[in-house]
Design brief:
heterotetramer, A: alpha/beta, Aspartate Aminotransferase, domain 2, Aspartate Aminotransferase, domain 1, 3 domains, three-stranded antiparallel β-sheet, B: alpha/beta, seven-stranded mixed β-sheet, binds pyridoxal-5'-phosphate
């Protein structure tokens, strides 16, 4: 019922206040020299609480979200965010804990950190975890620094290269570069898996690490992962697994068994913590035992039922950020995992896989699958412009919004032309999937009967298609 | 139950897929790579889970918090909490489909604008992980922009932030970090000038600095610019309610830890990395940026913009690897700043300032205690104790007070120094208890 | 972005679960005889948590609410609900308190009850308050029973009649009838005030009480209230004030000074507790000292800083409901009042009055005021069908919804033809009022240029005009 | 700040109104009726208010709750709390404008339906103040319908509910209330029959009753009907997960306290009055009722219906005076029931039943203690103590347990009786502590 909203600053009226404080006993000028004091007050909106509440409530209603819409964003695992998680994380005892409080005063939080690390170890088969990374990309960077430290510790300073699959997420090469490595891309085969021969060709004494996404961004399992691991290890390199797609393996398989040395998980994906419109996330990193000492500080340790933070860990790559991690997110993931036993964990993966295959099976006649075989947690389909009056994936995606569905991820992975990457997750019902399928089928029909309608979509949203080029050409990024 | 399928659902769906069993769908995972067994505790029902969580939370001791050091106990208004937990914000993804995400996008635009206003800058991004990583990103942008390779870090910068920079750049080996010692607790202008050469990409100026002290920022900035170096300011956003904005004293980049704006302490995260810069550097900063544009009908709308900087487009040549950020924390800050307005922020900052100075006076008047450093400060100060600061902290803990952060944790020579922080949250009564407790250590 | 939603039961799928519990050690049949056990399970929806969250989130979006829309419902005082109030009421210490806990274990709650009673006494000038009534009507009924007890206690059993103004809220006569009284209606004069002569005529030894709304439902102050009180008291009757419109008097005047004997307040109106789509409310009743002993039990009393609940109070009318009152609501009103000092309290009333007069002044050329003089907290305007192509108040109200405003109260008070009763409250900004004025002016213009558009409104809501007659003729009130 | 006007706003608005000052608008309030002075504490800022509220809340003692007597400590799922605090529900008014209130209206329809399903009835209203007042309304409707004037109330009904009925009908003098004593803790069929005559409008049958016991409801209903009286059932909705529904054993009206469905204890309110009835009586029940209908385009929609019963139409001839009700509590119940479904409700009820019976067995095995009554019960039972029950309660309070409700509070002859309630929330450990503590009183 809302269609647009002024900016907060446009609602500002001098003198209005949304919150006030008791008066200070003395003004700033009494305590500080004049020259350090602010001359011009910041141009912030002046609004009453009532207006602030109304403004942001209305803004919120201009959003699609998981709580209102199916959100089949491939690679993002937009599963339901159980509300109990939120309540756990908000408990005053957890929320009010200062990160420099002595360990005796924060045993509850430390116990959660410790226990979650153990649960993640069990889930993945790896020996040690750090919960410090703030997101997946941060976890990748952490893993890359661990690899660098590992090679350095062995005196091996020639490993300057990291290999990534051409289907990998952009953060993989970007993180590798951030770590100071040269990035070499390895091609995928027509079946969507890494080309083992190409990998073997690329591997050498210069290779520090191979980064692989499992299942990969096509929703497929790297069948030859054992061989990949062996080849990688044979040249003295490490195998990194991007575990952002871990939903497909939850309770089914332990990556340590694949030969993986380092992996990151995305708690804000597979572990049901909400995405918040872009974050916060949490990207724990797990490693095999021989790499544990390189993990960042602080480390949580237990001794006789008491928990401590260790900051002096010889070998550690150091600190990746301030303090111990995104504890508010970590608490939610811990709550989520404790709601499961081994059987339920497994059904997470099973139902995620079932749902992806269901969508794939019901759509592949109109939107062919990038690779024609069962997928795991997500399927990558293609739009065929030649059979749809020239309409492209972007058009289909925008039209889906009119049909009441968030669009899938599009144009990713980069190796698939006109990709529609659909990840339903296990928490969606068959009815929802079927409605989504119907919408995509209806759009296919619309493409033939009324292509203009599709091309100019969306029609029923707060705004129509937005001019991204103009935005980038003359950036207006603040009200100034 | 989080999965919604019944046994019937599963059967019928398998039939629709055309396979006999779920195992057929798993065929691509070689059998020997499946795990037969997970050592896992029994599932807790929601009531059991909540009981378990309450028991754990109760193992954290409630304390009146006089600790700062990069995380401060500021008040979070009820309206902030109520609004950020709305599903429409909480459960949305990064606004990839702009038309279905105008709420998130406009809020990001308002966030960027508010941060620019606070810091006196022209552009800001949609948030970074925290203050420390924001500094790493800013420093890295400065090196790219100047083509220079050295960063000067004052000792008065948060030691853990310096550690983060070391971790970030250590493996790559660049930019090179050089620390300037600050025996007076502040960055000495001539000490900085002595290190300034044409390889210096940026000087980091933290004010208030790690010890709570205000640097002579305008002079430092002027000298740094004189040698072609950029200036990266580090500043607590709350302090900017009373202190001059970095953009106004000459900084080129400004970063800060935004936790204090509407986000609880949460034992260290999620926090909020703030990064703002002058217009000229806008295309060099990392992370999401929201821009204003128009739709096909000419109506105003918002999109993620300048994406050519980012990893999903540029991959290994991207400005940074960041993807997910701290959007919801940024939203909390945006709403908090809208509630505060300039007057509220000033009031809040003045309260912090006033309460901190009063406590500092009273604490320094206790025999055996004194302030470690001279010079103006905001709401943190270093208290020199007659005994190891760790002992003072332990004693106050018994009275329900978190006295501060002992600096021995960072610098072995500072075992008697206690970094104390006072926010608007601390009451008269708590401050009195603090001072009274110090009395026990008077010689 | 949502337009309608299936019923929960229509989304039900056998076997789905939104919450589960640990298993009981033994089934019900082990503890209870077979014949008391339920044979057919209740037909409740079977849904996953994800579906429940999505269902009710979507439903919520089909609503207008104060957090999104200006809600100028006359007589309802839809002011902003400060969010701090919600947080106060939800504090575990308050929310978890059992009503039969011994007083030593609930001193915090009892202190709030006690303090709020004292604050309400100070605000109204009355001697004693009960917080027990669950809403305004419940408060009226309480007051009426107090009056009955008062007369009975004096041995006066002939007072069988209660006088109410013709402009009064329907709950007034209904409550009087519930108390066993005959109801006699007293007319208002053309200036909207009670006709004092008519009142004098009606008063007599049979009169138990006069019920007056102050300010009345036309938003006008009963100028002659002192005379009314005197006349009422002269015949031995009591004066009741319906204080649901207390927002206009907050910090300005004390009803005890008017000669009022009994009054109720609506915490869910004047005291900023949210309305919740219809409740819960809270309708405290205050009385003059000589009536205090008749108030319902339990009563909160203080002794040496300790608080107790008194249940044995000779003279009390007894219990009006279970336990002490709608404590969750009471906490919010207490929080609200503590955010004010005397000056701020007064500005509540002043700004409420200012806003109502602003709207009145800006609209009265097109929608004449029922009484042409400044109003207090609300104004009653009229639609003139003869000047609007025959369109009525109902049409204007429905069309307002399309313009993004909740409609005012309509066809009330009953004594005004085609009434539009507008109460903006003090928390609305001038900009909002101005936008509302513009909308009403625009609708007036539409009535002339495109009457059909107005007559068939709303057009932009989830549904169009609903058939109320059909609903009442063949009631379908449950899915069965 | 809750008012939003600035001084400028006020001036400009006064000008637009055409008056010189606010006083001109207040002219109609005679000067001598204005109050010059209010004795009022200083305004608390939001941080101060929250500190004050926390301090007050901390004066309530946290207890493991074994008390029932009309208010039970059931689990409230997080999703319930999260959804009912959405502004769109929380800050909406009664759905007078149906087209702008379809969310609230549909939720009410779902509430009515769920309550009908639970109680085995055909119609229900949108909620009443609480269980006790719901009983008053039902009894009053029964008198209207039958044209009879007497109500039979068993002593096994909650004594405070009986008091409420006395208050409601005392002044009016009708209907007349007659109490049937229940020495065995249950309503004896022949005792009831003895009182049944053609003036009896309704018999109230509470099952589980105040003592937790199950009445012989089908027989009671059959006999009452035999004499032309209606039967008003009182039943805890949670118990109906395992117990037969009133509509199925013959009740004509069913009422209950709905607090246990998604609403916290809140020291007694807001609670949730449930009222359901057979179709024939639908037009006689009080309060809001939502009905399904269609809009101008034939689409399904919901409206408030049968308003001719209500005060705003019928005034002194209305079925009741009720206006505002407990809508948000009803919404909590609706959402909770949707989460539970029939299986979840059964599971929850079975847990209550099981835990209560286990505790009853163990408590009664402690020397000196015994169960006061025979007969099947749900999750409350009366424990006869060797000492005054008040003493037992005081002792357990020291161990963090609220042991129950001493019946001496209601009946002077029952000073040694303790009404104990066990919900799904009570843990094994708490029950053990309970039993262990009783041991101190063993002779
Ligand atoms: C496969 C994959 N890897 C890595 C990432 C990066 O994770 P984050 O956004 O948490 O930094 C993502 C997230 O989009 C992803 O899908
Ligand atoms: C003037 C007046 N009196 C009484 C009432 C009844 O209050 P409640 O709805 O809380 O029972 C109202 C509410 O609509 C009212 O406006």
């Amino acid at each position: 019922m809302t269609s647009s909203e002024k900016l907060s600053i446009e609602k500002s009226v001098p003198g209005r206040r949304g919150i006030w404080f008791a008066k200070a006993s003395r003004p700033a000028a009494d305590w500080l020299p004049h020259h350090v004091l602010r001359r011009v007050p910041p141009r912030l909106p002046e609004m009453a609480e009532s207006e602030v509440v109304r403004h942001y409530t209305r803004l919120s209603q201009l959003n699609y979200c998981l709580d209102t819409h199916f959100y089949p964003l491939g690679s993002c695992t937009m599963k339901h965010n159980p509300r109990a998680n939120e309540e756990v994380a908000a408990l005053e005892g957890f929320a009010a804990a200062h990160p420099c409080a002595p360990e005796t005063a924060v045993q509850g939080t430390l116990e959660v950190l410790f226990r979650l690390e153990r649960l993640l170890c069990e889930l993945t088969g790896l020996a040690a975890f750090t919960l410090q990374p703030a997101a997946g990309a941060h976890g990748e960077f952490t893993g890359i620094l661990v690899a660098a430290a590992f090679h350095r510790a062995r005196g091996d300073r020639k490993r300057k290269e990291i290999l990534v699959a051409d289907s990998s997420h952009g953060t993989n090469p970007a993180s590798a570069a951030l770590g100071g490595f040269a990035v070499r891309t390895v091609a995928s085969r027509a079946d969507g898996r890494l080309d083992l021969d190409a990998l073997r060709m690329a591997l050498g004494p210069q290779t520090a690490m191979v980064m692989l996404t499992v299942p990969n961004t096509l929703g497929l399992f790297e069948r030859q992962i054992r061989e990949i691991a062996e080849a990688t290890h044979a040249v003295g390199a490490l195998l990194y697994m991007d575990g952002a797609n871990f939903n497909a393996l939850m309770g089914l398989a332990k990556p340590a068994d694949f030969g993986v040395d380092i992996l990151h998980l995305n708690l804000h994906k597979s572990f049901s913590t909400p995405h918040g419109g872009g974050g916060p996330g949490s990207g724990p990193v797990g490693v095999q035992a021989r790499l544990a000492k390189f993990l960042p500080v602080p480390r949580v340790v237990e001794k006789n039922g008491r928990f401590k933070l260790q900051t002096r860990c010889p070998g550690s790559i150091g600190r990746m950020r301030s303090f111990a991690g995104n504890v508010g997110v970590i608490l939610k993931a811990y709550a989520y995992l404790r709601g499961h036993d081994a059987l339920r964990l497994r059904s997470v993966a099973e139902n995620a896989i079932l749902n992806a295959n269901y969508v794939r099976a019901r759509l592949k006649d109109l939107y062919p699958a990038a690779v024609d075989e069962p997928c795991l947690h997500e399927c990558v389909l293609r739009t065929e412009p030649e059979k749809m009056n020239g309409l492209k994936t972007l058009d289909v995606a925008k039209r889906l919004l009119d049909h009441g569905f968030h669009a899938p991820t599009i144009y990713f992975p980069l190796i698939v032309h006109e990709a529609l990457m659909i990840e339903p997750t296990e928490t969606e019902t068959r009815e929802t999937l079927e409605a989504f399928v119907s919408a995509l089928r209806a759009i296919h029909a619309e493409a033939l009967s009324d292509p203009e309608k599709v091309k100019t979509a969306p029609h029923d949203l707060p705004v129509r298609r937005l001019d991204e080029l103009a935005a980038a050409r003359n950036p207006n990024v603040a009200w100034g | 139950m989080y999965s919604s399928h019944t046994a019937t659902d599963r059967e019928e769906m398998l039939r629709a897929i055309g396979v006999a069993s779920l195992d057929d769908l798993l065929a691509q995972i070689p059998g020997d790579l499946r795990a037969a067994h997970f050592e896992w505790p029994p599932a807790l029902s929601e009531p059991e889970l909540m009981a378990h969580a309450h028991a754990l939370a109760a193992r954290n001791q409630p304390l009146a918090c006089f600790a700062g050091a990069g995380a401060q106990d500021h008040f979070v208004p009820a309206a902030v909490k109520a609004l950020i937990r709305r599903g429409e914000f909480l459960t949305a993804y990064t606004p990839y489909q702009a038309e279905a995400s105008q709420g998130t996008l406009q809020a990001i635009y308002e966030f960027q604008s508010s941060i620019c206003a606070l810091y006196g800058m022209d552009a800001a991004n949609a948030s970074l992980y925290d203050g420390a990583t924001a500094l790493a990103e800013a420093v890295s942008a400065a090196a790219r922009i100047t083509g220079r390779n050295k960063i000067l870090l004052p000792e008065s910068l948060h030691p853990e932030w310096r550690e983060v920079l070391k971790t970030y750049f250590g493996a790559k080996g660049e930019p090179v970090l050089e620390t300037i010692s600050c025996p007076t607790g502040r960055l000495d202008v001539s000490a900085m000038e002595a290190r300034l050469d044409e390889t210096v990409a940026a000087v980091v100026v933290a004010t208030p600095n790690f010890f709570g002290l205000l640097e002579d920022a305008p002079v430092l900035a002027e000298r740094a610019h004189g040698r072609g170096a950029l200036v990266v300011a580090v500043a607590d956003p709350v302090s900017l309610g009373v202190l001059e904005a970095p953009g106004h004293w000459g900084a080129d980049f400004a970063v800060g830890e935004g936790q204090g704006l509407g986000n609880p302490l949460n034992y260290g995260g999620p926090y909020l990395g703030l990064l703002a810069c002058r217009k000229a550097h806008m295309r060099h900063i990392p992370g999401r940026i929201c821009g204003l544009t128009t739709d096909a009908d000419g109506r105003r709308g918002f999109v993620l913009t300048l994406q050519a900087r980012e990893q999903h487009i540029r991959r290994e040549r991207a400005a940074s690897n960041i993807c997910s950020n701290e959007a919801l924390c940024a939203l909390a800050a945006t709403i908090h700043l809208a509630l505060l307005g300039p007057a509220g922020l000033k009031e809040m900052a003045e309260l912090c300032l006033d309460k901190a100075h009063r406590l500092a006076e009273q604490a320094a008047a206790v025999p055996g205690f004194r302030l470690c450093f001279d010079g103006p400060f905001f709401n943190e100060f270093v208290l020199e104790c007659p005994v190891p600061a760790e002992r003072v902290r332990r004693a106050l803990l018994k009275r329900g007070l978190l006295a501060g952060v002992p600096l021995g944790r960072y610098v072995t020579t500072r075992k008697h120094s206690l970094l104390v922080c006072v926010t608007e949250q601390r009451t008269e009564e708590e401050c009195e208890r603090f001072v009274a407790a110090l009395g026990d250590f008077a010689p």
